[in-house]
Design goal:
4 copies of one chain form a homotetramer. Chain A has 347 residues and is α/β, with parallel strands linked by helices. Chain A has 2 domains: 129 residues, 3-Layer(aba) Sandwich (Rossmann fold), CATH 3.40.50.720; 159 residues, Dihydrodipicolinate Reductase, domain 2 (2-Layer Sandwich), CATH 3.30.360.10. Helix content of chain A is 30%, strand content 22%. Chain A has a 7-stranded mixed beta sheet. In chain A, strands 2-1-3-4-6-5 form a 6-stranded parallel beta sheet, with helices on both faces. Chain A starts with a strand and ends in a 17-residue tail after the last helix. The relative contact order of chain A is 0.14. Chains in contact: A-B, A-C, A-D, B-C, B-D, C-D. At the A-B interface, strand 7, strand 8, strand 9, strand 10 and strand 12 of A face strand 7, strand 8, strand 9, strand 10 and strand 12 of B.
Amino acid sequence: MAIGVGILGGTGYGAGELLRLCALHPNIDVVSVTSREAGKICDAHPHLNGFYSDLFDTEVNVGALSSYDQAVIFSALPHGVSGQTIINLLEETDSDTFKVIDLSGDWRLKSLELHSEFYPKSPIAAELRKKFQYGLTELYRDEISSCSLLANPGCLATASALAAAPIGSLDPIGQIAVDAKTGSTGSGKEPKSTTHHPTRHGNFRGYKPLAHQHEPEFKQAIAPSYTNQLPPMSFLAQSLPIARGIFVSVHAQLENEITSQALIEHLEKFYSTSPFIRVLHELPEIGPVVGTNFCDISGAARGNQIIICAAIDNLGKGMASAAIQNMNLMFGLEETTGLMQPALGPC
Amino acid sequence: MAIGVGILGGTGYGAGELLRLCALHPNIDVVSVTSREAGKICDAHPHLNGFYSDLFDTEVNVGALSSYDQAVIFSALPHGVSGQTIINLLEETDSDTFKVIDLSGDWRLKSLELHSEFYPKSPIAAELRKKFQYGLTELYRDEISSCSLLANPGCLATASALAAAPIGSLDPIGQIAVDAKTGSTGSGKEPKSTTHHPTRHGNFRGYKPLAHQHEPEFKQAIAPSYTNQLPPMSFLAQSLPIARGIFVSVHAQLENEITSQALIEHLEKFYSTSPFIRVLHELPEIGPVVGTNFCDISGAARGNQIIICAAIDNLGKGMASAAIQNMNLMFGLEETTGLMQPALGPC
Amino acid sequence: MAIGVGILGGTGYGAGELLRLCALHPNIDVVSVTSREAGKICDAHPHLNGFYSDLFDTEVNVGALSSYDQAVIFSALPHGVSGQTIINLLEETDSDTFKVIDLSGDWRLKSLELHSEFYPKSPIAAELRKKFQYGLTELYRDEISSCSLLANPGCLATASALAAAPIGSLDPIGQIAVDAKTGSTGSGKEPKSTTHHPTRHGNFRGYKPLAHQHEPEFKQAIAPSYTNQLPPMSFLAQSLPIARGIFVSVHAQLENEITSQALIEHLEKFYSTSPFIRVLHELPEIGPVVGTNFCDISGAARGNQIIICAAIDNLGKGMASAAIQNMNLMFGLEETTGLMQPALGPC
Amino acid sequence: MAIGVGILGGTGYGAGELLRLCALHPNIDVVSVTSREAGKICDAHPHLNGFYSDLFDTEVNVGALSSYDQAVIFSALPHGVSGQTIINLLEETDSDTFKVIDLSGDWRLKSLELHSEFYPKSPIAAELRKKFQYGLTELYRDEISSCSLLANPGCLATASALAAAPIGSLDPIGQIAVDAKTGSTGSGKEPKSTTHHPTRHGNFRGYKPLAHQHEPEFKQAIAPSYTNQLPPMSFLAQSLPIARGIFVSVHAQLENEITSQALIEHLEKFYSTSPFIRVLHELPEIGPVVGTNFCDISGAARGNQIIICAAIDNLGKGMASAAIQNMNLMFGLEETTGLMQPALGPC
């Protein structure tokens, strides 16, 4: 099967990673990549030199996509712009021409109130919003398999949800602290002071304490995994002096005591059908997941206290490879198609 | 006043930083620096080239120290070795020849049980142990001013205690999560796999979850600051891909709601007499404390949830400059003497 | 075609990268991986978790290899050990059971004098030495295609030779300066002071000035590309604070003036049949070659002065992927088989 | 003696480093710091928090400066803006009110042709230009001591000149290759694509081959040190993935053979009266000079080939501390006043 692929917003890091993964995927034809900037795709992405010789389109080539029986548009546009562009495209086009996977935050939050608070510049589009399936594969695999509009999860939300979801059936008490750290590519390709090399190098800082937009997202994502009402969550985002990778540590207290071994077995069971979740016997690290769709996860316990840590690549499982994983399911392919490459090792 | 200074274990990072600070201190004469390795001091510390032309001594020159009215021995020896060396020195020497500041963990824990559990290779020396004052200046300033044997705090314990102590009077409920991240110099000068550049660079990992030796230390340190019994603490140590610096985030829930502004004012009040604690209005970062004795701290609140973050230099406020700060107090000098230099800025 | 592969010295970085690339190669069966250390392959290489479930062998399984019509042994053993191990294997085995690709430096230098000077612990084995083909593919493609014993090039030598070879037909005058910079994985997996994170991070240093073992190697490699006698070469190795990648700048003066455009066209022509050499119009950078077999190269001229710069991955084109590239040729496969993946982009 | 100091362009990295050093200098009163941006000095420089509580001025407070018997204005304005601002200030003010040290490139090149080529947006001001003394202290100490207008050297030019000047009396033959590598603070505080953390981290690239503005500058600086005519120079600038520091390697051939020891002795003699040049017996590294005014230098020889390497801090000896060193001489102070601090060690 050949899937025709269009990519909106082709110059950013998300698109660059999508294009890299498309080049490795056996069922994908990249048909059209748009950008406001003119020029060659590989000039915007020097690592793709030799793999994409085409120019950017100014608008996505719907005609070319419609020549495929199966087609999908990935949007890697910024929040706000993405939502409106997709609304316009859907209005202008036959509904079965292409499926949509939006990598922006524009369709993730179901609550209109939370959406308006955290994405004030994005369209609300309440009716269309209901049709977008939230795309954290490991928690919503069945729903994703049958959807045609998908809201791809945020990077910090993905790692936080994967680490915190398994706690839902362990009778947590009190608040759960979710302490998240991310690499600099998470802030995008546009140079800014917080990603200026002299200040990011050798540094570490926290930001948006108890106010980050990925907190309501991961809470929405994991709520169904919690036997009881979701407990209070304390969420902190922090900046790592690396380019790629997210590490989340989750601190919780349980109603009853548990051993580290029982906790790890619980994780193994929780993710037994998820090929990209590697449950480890020691705490994970970022290195072995860079460039991959893997989430490495483990935990430890003492009495009724537990810590669970998860590591992902923010551009991979936190963004582009997760989008491909979702695409695979949406088109009836094996979930792992085109995604089973190991990390580089030390890099 | 000239204070004669001896340094034990002169080749490691702690000694290197002590020597750097001694070169900037107006009241210090470095009299004797010991090492098992022969050679020049500045060959072991290339950054001190031009500042120390002497050779290492094999044993501390007590005779030279005793020619000073005021003298102190800093021990930067490894855990275990340090405690025994100090026991021997104190037995062999007149008790008022020199004061002692031990940078190792050998005298920090008061509980003999906890000490034996976390430092099984260190002497217990229960009687001598009682005479060692724990040296977290901001919490024990008065006791330090009158002591002559001092247990200098651990780096992660210092940052954790400074961040968590102010919560003690805010009626916390449930467990407190202390999430700590440290640079690679904290693991010492001896090359090992966890500080091997290829695996540390661009990486991040957790270690010793709920089992790190600095957890009982900071709990002991802050217990008196807690109005009620110390709540359960969840402690995680993590490795940053930087050389110097510690960042600790503390997540807690309070009995009552509080605003971010009220929380910051509480921190300002708590540390109003501490010249090296800089309470900020935004979350701190590691960069501006590298090479200094400062602890930058701030926090945020939402309802009854709070996050407090603190940043220090693990070799500075977490080790050598804290030792000088304590020395200043122990000899009646101004606490800030020789320590009021700004950080380098971007580096 | 299935090629049976044995790997000697399976715990190091070279073997880790070989194993990663073998997992992506359509014609390779990894049959036996040896190590002095017991344990699982993926425990030594956390990034291969999920890709190799086998244990290390203590000795290479020649019996299993001999069941393949086509087989090859890659040696990733240290210099000295590798040469002797291969001598022993060849003596014990039928000569057509397997081909050999040695990643160590033991067979690279043809001059017995230079070999003895730079590899004093390696066997000389003068007769066997003559049978080893030097494996810089772009300069010795035909010879490699017909050999069965191959000396895989050194990393700094590869980048230096690829940058300096094209100058040979441009009538250089005076000495040529080759200024090489390398990442920390080039020093291997064993922790040592020069790859200790605290001293490597944020640092840069030169080493072995005019005395590095890769200088005679690249001079031997490029001599045939020089119309006249090889001019004097000045070679400096330097340490970059990154994990992977080599950047070499070559400064030369020519008999006649040349333009930058003419120089770049000369490079394009020189490498017109080499699919892994990407000639750029601006100076290269390391990022886009990390994890790949590409060498990005470009240059500039002013009057009769030229600078040529080349970037490779020391573990890729400088080691393991070059070995696979050579293997492809030695077994009649397309040179690019299993190697045409793009770099990760920012990482 | 108290010297009144005004600083123009107070928000950049050069000004930040000047302010840090002024806080450590016993003879400096910082009287006025200007910036186009309103706000507190320490908000622009978080590492100076607690050391500068004043606001930026919109214009330099000449009145306050004139109340000092000795005063100096440092300009850390951008190229072009700086030259014109100084022209205006000098026209408006009594000539003996203050001396001027311009850290920009606006007054460095004596050749009007070269100046116009490399600084096309800067004023030529041919007459005033003659009065500006080029400020590479080690080569022009006497002239600097008696000047009142000083052009502070460029960072790459400083390291290149200090490494290449000693070759002038060694009878070099053929071209000299100067291969320079710099940290990211050298590109300034304004975020841009070449200093964007995701692309700078873990990367290395060359730029402006044979076309960098610091090449004519260092050639002008060292010409008088050359017994014969200056030979052709090949200059390459390259970007290191660190924040601070420059490393320059110089490759040359001599008329006659020399030993490494004789070369090092030559360097020691050449810099025997220069307190900030540390001649080492092994190649230097960047770490031990970060944050200092030191230049560490060494070399090696083989036959008639030599390599000399020099390491400096681009913001220190390459900029702000060199400016203070020059100021010391211009006001009759000891050259080392306020500058003799060791580097941090690992950082």
